[in-house]
């Protein structure tokens, strides 16, 4: 079922969803199941599975270092199929511009269609570690709106090199990212909203926001998006802070601000157990206010252990 259909079926009730990352190569999928199992009692209608970019590794060959491209966390589509089969829940693979040619993207989408996957999240992706700025893969897309268009074309039977008349077209529901505090590369929030409008105009059906810690920024973002003519559901993304280094790491990596009350509470923590509790309490407060405001879905970035997400969900749902 499509995300938009899940939202419509909920008739105004706020849904619970979360996002996971594939395990590193060589790790068992059972570890992933162990983090999903405790969250299934909250009846998520869908689960997102991220896709990692390729990265360079250096292999020692007789004293000479050989530079090779690899993916440390492959298996997004396979994990989506496994979770869909095991839990009977919709899964959403993240599809990236970076690291993929248009042909590779088409093959991935065809696989998703065969597996009965109804939703995809279309993202540009981050720059590689060696890049100062994002560079498009040769033969790939430079912007997420171009990726959205390719997916929408496939929904209409338009493949890269031919148009196929068929009664078995894909019909993907397309999600895209939104940034309440603007994308780190955008010169202004207004210009970033114009980019979001381009993605929606290209065929995006819903938006999931980057994490934020001040709900007012989400509310203002939704209002600004509506003023821009963006009328698709905008799902807030919530990440509970779990370790003290998030105080420096999150603002540095994602260019987001933390409220002073949250900073003060984290500064008073003497260990990461206390930090984790503060993160749970703050995210619970955020979630209750957002749910009261009638957001369609509360989407949690679990990314690792799920005990904090479970504690929040128990208090909210």
How would you characterize this protein structure?
Helix content is 40%, strand content 17%. The protein is an alpha/beta fold. A nine-stranded parallel sheet has the order 9-8-7-6-5-2-1-11-10, sandwiched between helices. α4 (102-114) links the parallel β5 and β6. The longest helix is centred in the C-terminal third of the chain and has 21 residues, at 272-292. The chain is globular and about 60 Å long.
Topology:
Elements (H helix, E strand, L loop, with lengths): L2 H8 L4 E6 L8 H8 L9 E4 L5 E7 L2 E7 L5 H12 L2 E7 L5 H13 L4 E5 L20 H12 L17 E6 L10 H14 L3 E4 L5 H13 L6 E2 L1 E2 L7 H9 L5 H8 L4 H21 L4 E5 L5 H10 L1
CATH architecture: Alpha-Beta Barrel
Percentage of β-strand residues: 15-25%
Q: For the residues shown, what is the average pLDDT?
A: 92
Distance between the termini: 22 Å
The order of strands across the largest sheet is 9-8-7-6-5-2-1-11-10
Briefly summarize what is shown.
The chain has 317 residues and is α/β, with parallel strands linked by helices. Helices cover 40% and strands 17% of the residues.
Which descriptors apply to this entry?
single chain; 317 residues; alpha/beta; TIM Barrel; 9-stranded parallel beta sheet; two-stranded antiparallel sheet; 11 helices; 11 strands; 17% strand; globular
């Amino acid at each position: 079922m499509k995300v938009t259909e899940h939202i419509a079926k909920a008739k105004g009730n706020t849904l619970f969803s979360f996002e996971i990352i594939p395990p590193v190569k060589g790790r068992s999928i059972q570890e992933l199941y162990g983090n999903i199992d405790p969250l299934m009692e909250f009846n998520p209608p869908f689960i997102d599975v991220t896709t990692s970019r390729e990265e360079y590794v250096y292999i020692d060959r007789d004293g000479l270092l050989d530079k090779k491209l690899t993916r440390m966390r492959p298996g997004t589509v396979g994990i989506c199929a496994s979770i869909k089969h095991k839990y009977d829940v919709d899964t959403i693979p993240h599809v990236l511009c970076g690291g993929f040619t248009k042909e590779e993207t088409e093959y991935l989408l065809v696989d998703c269609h065969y597996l009965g996957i109804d939703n995809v999240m279309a993202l540009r992706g981050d720059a590689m570690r060696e890049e100062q700025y994002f560079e498009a893969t040769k033969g790939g897309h430079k912007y997420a709106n171009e990726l959205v268009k390719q997916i929408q074309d496939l929904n209409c039977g338009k493949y890269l090199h031919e148009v196929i008349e068929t009664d078995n077209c894909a019909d993907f529901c397309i999600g895209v990212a939104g940034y309440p505090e603007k994308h780190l590369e955008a010169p202004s929030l207004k210009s970033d909203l114009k980019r979001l409008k381009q993605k929606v105009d290209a065929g995006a059906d819903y938006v999931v926001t980057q994490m934020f810690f001040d709900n007012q920024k989400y509310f203002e973002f939704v209002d600004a998006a509506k003023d821009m003519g963006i009328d698709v559901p905008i799902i807030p993304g919530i990440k509970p802070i779990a370790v003290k280094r998030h105080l420096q790491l999150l603002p540095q990596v994602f260019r987001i601000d933390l409220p002073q009350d949250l900073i003060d509470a984290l500064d008073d923590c003497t260990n990461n157990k206390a930090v984790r509790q503060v993160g749970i309490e703050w995210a619970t407060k955020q979630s209750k206010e957002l749910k009261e405001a009638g957001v369609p879905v509360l989407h949690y970035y679990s990314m690792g252990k799920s005990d904090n997400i479970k504690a929040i969900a128990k208090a909210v749902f």
